[in-house]
């Protein structure tokens, strides 16, 4: 039986992991809702974001927060251009072609990152280094920062989609692109903006996770766990994706401790179990997408 302090420590670790997965999954779901495309290179936006913040922070000496903003915005521009210049041109092609293209993007991004920044693991200095002591329990501040950042970003996204003209137009476009087009909504531009928002959130997750995972070309593979979390919660549902990622994040450290033989794959075991029991995920969309 684990001591209570260890249980709390594992729970906080899992909560932080789940929040990080949730941030990455938001991009998966946003792009899917807008285009019905699953971007398998989305995790690489996270990896590029971590490298971009590292470059601005330590390469140019900007400090963490200016580098964080500049790095996230630069990856948002990359996401926008990928849709505007490439993905838009293959509309109507087979799902297999789109799948292969997004997987290829992942390999290209990893190779470019390795050629620019090298293949060794790098570290990024953040203001979150340190610990907070609560009694006999030490809580890493970088874990707390991930949880707080997730809450803030989710709140900002909610306000954006519910209170701004662009956000409401993006929701309308995701429901019925043809009707939105005839209403004068710039559908193509909004889809590219959706890719940009997804890339920005993934880049933020990469920078916030950097003290935990370090920075190298393989951290984008965490995107696959985020995808598993989105599937568990109900792919296409933003609250469901967050719930699924939190569930996987909380289960993972306990599963790794009690069942070390499945360390690293417990997220996919949870996904398989949920798919057997509830194939549509934990949270079902309350509407049918119109196409």
Provide the gyration radius in Å.
19 Å
Class by alpha and beta content:
mainly alpha
Please tell me the total number of domains: 1
Q: Report strand %.
A: under 5%
SS element count, helices: 11
Quick one: how many beta strands?
A: 2
Give the uncertain stretches in residue-range form. 287-291
Mean pLDDT: 85
Helix content: over 70%
The sequence of SSEs as H and E is HHHHEEHHHHHHH
Largest sheet: 2 strands, antiparallel
Q: Order of strands across the widest beta sheet?
A: 1-2
Distance between the termini: 53 Å
What would your notes on this structure say?
- The protein has one domain.
- Helix content is 71%, strand content 3%.
- The chain is built from eleven helices and two strands; from the N terminus they run ααααββααααααα.
- A two-stranded antiparallel ribbon has the order 1-2.
- A hairpin with a 2-residue loop joins strand 1 and strand 2.
């Amino acid at each position: 039986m684990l001591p209570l302090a260890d249980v709390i420590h594992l729970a906080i670790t899992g909560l932080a992991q789940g929040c990080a997965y949730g941030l990455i999954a938001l991009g998966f779901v946003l792009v899917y809702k807008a285009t019905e495309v699953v971007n398998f290179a989305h995790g690489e936006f996270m990896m590029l974001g971590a490298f971009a913040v590292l470059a601005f922070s330590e390469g140019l000496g900007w400090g963490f927060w200016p580098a964080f903003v500049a790095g996230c915005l630069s990856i948002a521009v990359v996401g926008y251009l990928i849709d505007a210049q490439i993905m838009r041109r293959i509309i109507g092609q087979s799902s297999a072609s789109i799948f292969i293209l997004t997987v290829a993007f992942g390999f290209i991004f990893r190779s470019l990152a390795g050629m620019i920044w090298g293949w060794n693991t790098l570290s990024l200095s953040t203001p979150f280094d340190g610990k907070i002591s609560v009694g006999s329990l030490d809580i890493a501040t970088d874990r707390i920062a991930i949880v707080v950042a997730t809450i803030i970003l989710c709140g900002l996204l909610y306000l954006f989609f519910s209170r701004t003209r662009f956000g409401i137009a993006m929701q309308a476009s995701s429901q019925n692109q043809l009707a939105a087009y005839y209403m004068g909504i710039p559908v193509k531009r909004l889809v590219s903006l959706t890719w940009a928002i997804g890339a920005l959130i993934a880049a933020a997750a990469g920078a916030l996770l950097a003290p935990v995972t370090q920075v190298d070309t393989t951290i984008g593979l965490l995107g696959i766990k985020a995808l598993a979390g989105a599937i568990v919660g109900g792919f296409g549902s933003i609250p469901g994706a967050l719930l699924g990622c939190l569930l996987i994040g909380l289960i993972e450290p306990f599963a790794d401790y009690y069942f070390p033989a499945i360390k690293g794959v417990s997220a996919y075991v949870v996904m398989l179990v949920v798919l057997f029991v509830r194939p549509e995920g934990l949270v079902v969309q309350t509407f049918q997408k119109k196409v």
